[in-house]
Amino acid sequence: MTKISSGSMFIMKRVFPVLWFGFLVVFVGAGMMWAIAGGPELSDLFFLVTPLFLAIIGYAVMKQFIWDLVDEVYDHGDYLVIRNRGDEARIDLADIMNVSVSTNLNPPRISLRLAHPTKFGTEVSFSPIRPFTLNPFVKNEIAESLIVRVDRARSRRAV
């Protein structure tokens, strides 16, 4: 059993959003105090509109790129164990239709399209462990290995 997902998912999915939205609340609170103390002018509304805009953008980005990632993925050879928010599912490599890799995102992601839906749906995405490198175009070894192993497992099932 080898963990192939990033260990920083708790920070990305739980801590960072609290810090992001907490900072915006503090910023709005400071802007409100300033507006109350000095009497707001039209230009002072900038301090209330900007955090609202940043909250909307932050929510959309986190919903699209972070919150859909599962917490942990463990490789057991012929199958993967997926864990997310206390739920767990086993996925045989032969049941994976497609492995897609997006390395130019932060965090990078591997998406698995499944032949049969699980409690996580028909697509499972996770952020893989990645070694430090200065080369932004390096291939992810975990993704490359999964692609080859899924192809072999599907070929064996077809026979």
Give an overview in words:
The chain folds into two domains: 2-65; 72-158, Roll (PH-domain like). It has helices at 9-38, 46-65, 141-158; strands at 2-3, 72-75, 79-84, 87-92, 96-102, 109-118, 121-126. Strands 1-2-3-4 form a four-stranded antiparallel beta sheet, with no helix packed on it. The model has no long low-confidence stretch (mean pLDDT 88). It is built from three helices and seven strands; from the N terminus they run E-H-H-E-E-E-E-E-E-H. It starts with a strand and ends with a helix. The chain is an alpha+beta fold and 159 residues long.
How does the SSE layout of this entry go?
Layout: E1 2-3, H1 9-38, H2 46-65, E2 72-75, E3 79-84, E4 87-92, E5 96-102, E6 109-118, E7 121-126, H3 141-158
Antiparallel strand pairs: 1-2, 2-3, 3-4, 5-6, 6-7
Helix pairs in contact: 1-2
Short descriptors:
alpha+beta, single chain, 3 helices, four-stranded antiparallel β-sheet, 159 residues
- Percent helix, as a range, is 40-55%
Q: What best-fitting shape do the alpha-carbon axes yield?
A: elongated
Please give the order of strands in the largest beta sheet.
Answer: 1-2-3-4
Q: How many DSSP H or I helices?
A: 3
Largest β-sheet summary: 4 strands, antiparallel
Question: Strand portion, in percent?
Answer: 25-35%
Please report the distance between the alpha carbons of the first and last residues. 27 Å
Give the CATH H-level superfamily of the largest domain: Pleckstrin-homology domain (PH domain)/Phosphotyrosine-binding domain (PTB)
Which regions have little confidence, pLDDT < 50, spanning 5+ residues?
A: none
Q: How large, in whole angstroms, is the Cα Rg?
A: 21 Å
